[in-house]
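hey can u check if this looks right to u? its 139 residues, i copy pasted from the old doc so theres a chance i mangled smth
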Amino acid sequence: MKKTLLIIVSIFLLAQLIQTEKINKPTPKELEIKAPEHIMTMLKKACYDCHSNKVRWPWYSNIAPFSWMIDSHVNDGRSALNFSEWENYTEKEKKKELKEIFRTAYISMPLKDYIIFHEEADLTREERTQIRDWTGVKK
């Protein structure tokens, strides 16, 4: 039992040597998505930690293996949609992204494992409806 515990602790400590880069690339404000203030407030509380260059890295993002998972989620989120670089998208890409926002507002975002640690990100039904309405996408 002691040997097993020692192995587990050793692996955990060695894992700490493999750190991820927590990058928040400076981005001009002109590139950020434009939306009414109440929509921006909702996007920032529920979306920006994975879909922007303004991630609030929590303390546990410094502890492997959590750091690896968080880094992966942020990288995946930014590659899918980055609100900080909205104006770099073509009009066609913006339209596609708005459809995705419309679709995921009720279905899958924010991720359940994110909400566990960030209860404030759990949007109400009314907030989700407001975001969907703001996208201008027709059902």
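The helical segments are 2-15, 37-46, 66-80, 91-107, 112-117, 125-135.
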